[in-house]
Amino acid sequence: MTEGLRESATFDRATIHAIQRAAATGVYDIRGGGAKRRLPHFDDLLFLGASMSRYPLEGYRERCDTDVILGARHAKYPLHLAIPVTIAGMSFGALSANAKEALGRGAGAVGTSTTTGDGGMTPEERGQSKHLVYQYLPSRYGMNPDDLRKADAIEVVLGQGAKPGGGGMLLGQKITDRVAGMRTLPVGVDQRSACRHPDWTGPDDLAIKIGELREITDWEKPIYVKIGATRTYYDVKLAVHAGADVVVVDGMQGGTAATQDVFIEHVGIPTLAAIPQAVQALQELGVHREVQLIVSGGIRSGADVAKAIALGADAVAIGTAALIALGDNHPRHDAEYRALGSAAGFYDDYQDGRDPAGISTQDDDLAARLDPVEGGRRLANYLRVLTMEAQTIARACGKSHLHHLEPEDLVALTIESAAMARVPLAGTDWIPGARP
Questions:
Q1: DSSP secondary structure letters along 86-127
Q2: How far is CA 322 from the centre of its chain?
Q3: pTM to 2 decimals?
Q4: Are β-strands 153-157 and 223-228 bridged in parallel, bridged antiparallel, or unpaired?
Q5: Residue 419: which H helix or E strand, with range?
Q6: What's the rounded Cα separation, in Å, for the pair 45 and 394?
C-alpha cells in the first residue's frame, strides 16, 4: 500500500538506494552514460520559422547545403565533410572491435568522420573510416607516430564533458589480451588514465606540443583541441592561442564508458551554457568560423543539430546517440538487461563488459552479436535522419545552408535557458543577463 505516502524530494528513492548501496559496499558508484539530472538543454529553445518578415525555402525544390570544412587554419589537408554531424571519440576497450568498425562504416557511408579514443587505432576502424580523427590523450595508450600519420586529423584531448578534470577508467574485466597489447598494460587489471598530459603544464607547453604534432605529420593534419565544458570562455581562448585549428567543447550531458557517478552529475556545465561562451571567445579573437567549433554533449535529433549550429557551432559530435543507433538499450535485450539488474532504456553499466548488445564489451561471444555491417547501416540511417531534420528546420527559417542559421532564429522557453543561450525569452526581447 502506497496511498497517502509522500516521497521526499531530497531523499527520493534513487537517493535512498545510493546511500544504502554505499553503506553496503564501501565503494563509490561507477557507471557509464552522461548526466541523468534535468538540465537546461536544447529542448528549452524554439526556432522562429519564416512567415512574413522572413521567406521560407521550398523543401522539394530549393537546396539547403550541409557540408563543412574543418581545420583549414593551418593544415594542408583540412577535412571536408558532407554533413556537420561527426562521431565522438570512444575507445577500443570501452567498445568492442565490431562497434568501432560499425562506427567507421556508418560515418563513412554519409561522408563524415569518426574518432578513435583512448587506446589507439584498430585496423578495422581505420579500414572502414573515410575520415578518422586520432585522439591524443594524457594516457598515450596505443599512441604511435605511424598511427598519427594514418589519421586524417588529430584531436588533443584535454578534457571530457562527463568528467572534466578527471581521467578515464577501464576495469580489468575488459582488459583482454588484445586491449592490453595495444595499451601496453597487464591483462585483467583495472586501468585508470591520467587526468592531465604528462609533458605540459599550460598553454605555452601545449603550443610546443601542437608544433611537434604538426612536424610529425608534415603539417598535413588539422589539429583539434577538445575540452570539457567548465571555464569555457578562457579555455577556448587559450586553445586558439596554442594553435588549435578546431576546438571541441564537450558539455556535461556528454557520455563516458566509466566514471564515478558523483563526477558525472556534479562537475561541468550544460552544453547549452558552454556554446555562447565558446563563440564569444572565438569572436573576440576574430577567428569565429576560421577556427571551427565542434559541440558535443546530448545531441539527439536534427533539431539539436540545428540549434547548436544556430548558436554558433560549425559541427556537432555524437556519442551516446550513435551507440543507441547501433543497438544499445534496445528492447530486444530487455530480459538480459533485467538479469543484470537493469532494463532496456536504463542500462548504463558499460564498465562491466557484460553488454548484451555486444557494444561495450570485450567478451568474444557478446561482441559477436553486433554485426558491424548492419550496425553501420543503422548508424548511417540515423545520421541521414539527423541531417534531413536539420535541413527541414533551416529551410523553414529561410536558410539555404545549415550554417546560415543564427541566434536570431531562436527564442527560449525558460529564463534559465534564455540566459545561458543568450537568446530572448519567447514573446519578449528580454535576454536575461545581457549587458545594455
A1: EEPB--BTTB-HHHHHHHHHHHHHTT-EEE--TT---HHHHH
A2: 10
A3: 0.96
A4: parallel
A5: helix 415-421
A6: 15
Q: Extract the C-alpha cell encoding 12.
A: 527520493
Helix orientation angle between 97-109 and 372-396, rounded to the nearest 10 degrees: 40
- Using DSSP, state whether 155 is helix, strand or coil: strand
pLDDT 10s per residue in the chain (436 long)? 578 999 999 999 999 999 999 999 999 999 999 999 999 999 999 999 998 888 899 888 899 999 999 999 999 999 999 999 999 999 999 999 999 999 999 999 999 999 999 888 999 999 999 999 999 998 888 888 899 999 999 999 999 999 999 888 889 999 999 999 998 889 999 988 888 888 888 888 999 999 999 999 999 999 999 999 999 999 999 999 999 999 999 999 999 989 999 999 999 999 999 999 999 999 999 999 999 999 999 999 999 999 999 999 999 999 999 999 999 999 999 999 999 999 999 999 999 999 999 999 999 999 999 999 999 999 999 999 999 999 999 999 999 999 999 999 999 999 999 999 999 999 999 999 886 6
Angstrom distance (rounded) from CA 222 to CA 415: 38
User: What are the grid coordinates assigned to 78, written together?
Assistant: 583540412
C-alpha grid cell, residue 332: 530486444
Q: Which three cell numbers stand for residue 335?
A: 530480459
- CA dist 79 and 70 (Å) reads 5
Beta bridge partners of 288: 291
In 115-229, where does DSSP find H-type helix? 123-128, 145-150, 177-183, 203-216
CA distance 360 to 92: 9
User: What stretches of 319-359 show up as alpha helix (H) in DSSP?
Assistant: 320-326, 334-339
Closest CA to 301 of 387, 418, 408: 387
Query: Is 331 in a helix, a strand, or coil?
Result: helix
